[in-house]
């Protein structure tokens, strides 16, 4: 299973993309043995936290970390940690250098340790207080962790005991996803960007990220479920329900345009369907929020800073429908 980077990039804030360790993981073997490759890997290792994870929103591939190691704050959010681990796995395969294997295993063990008994993951471990404790689907976090656990079965340097733990963690993660699927009036729909780590209920994160039906994160979850080799009847039902929700939630006759440092909705009868990032749990209608946490019916009602600084609309449902059209279990 390959990480779905285009979908994830559409969820990140404009200007928040950095040199990506996951992309470098696809380099040929010779690159890992070259001076450039070795230098890059040394930089990546300098950013690994004492717990085994990497920080988010940092360029971990071109400039070494020069601060105090105990100040490094690793996370699983915003593409952090899984990309670096994939890079290190390829580095060990290509070079046989134990330093890459050992760093990978430290991060791998950290991921296994961070999983809740119910199968979910917080944004980072240990999670502390606040919304970081929630089961985190935001920006593809939990899906990326599960994809790495799945792919780790093909890493020859991981022993059987760790692989068994990874398989068990993977299975718990699938069960958690199914428990988190939001049911409204007896009908399964999709997911919130984060769910309560105890009750599985949709949960609030930042002030403008209220409990909701999430068009963005739910698309990534459905892609992941459709990638499973032998989906259970429960997974098949969850996918069918999610796809049906996307069909019902599409927005037509509009397009979202960014220009002049702002974003706005424009009427366009010929535009392809769009989906909102957040839908109200009671009305099923899109909503938008500023940093005051007050729901608004249109993106024009929130401030310019949030209009331009967040992915309020996307074509997420298009990719879901295309994948579902090819899915053997529909």
TrEMBL record:
Keyword Chloroplast: no
Bias-annotated ranges (Basic and acidic residues): 56-72
Keywords on record: Lyase, Signal
Residue ranges the record marks as coiled coil: none
Catalytic activity, EC: 4.2.2.2
Leader sequence residues: 1-21
Region (Disordered), start-end ranges: 49-72
Keyword flag Membrane: no
Recorded GO MF terms: pectate lyase activity
First-level EC class: lyase
Database matches in NCBIfam families: pec_lyase
Record's protein name: Pectate lyase
Organism from which the protein derives: Luteolibacter arcticus
Gene: pelA
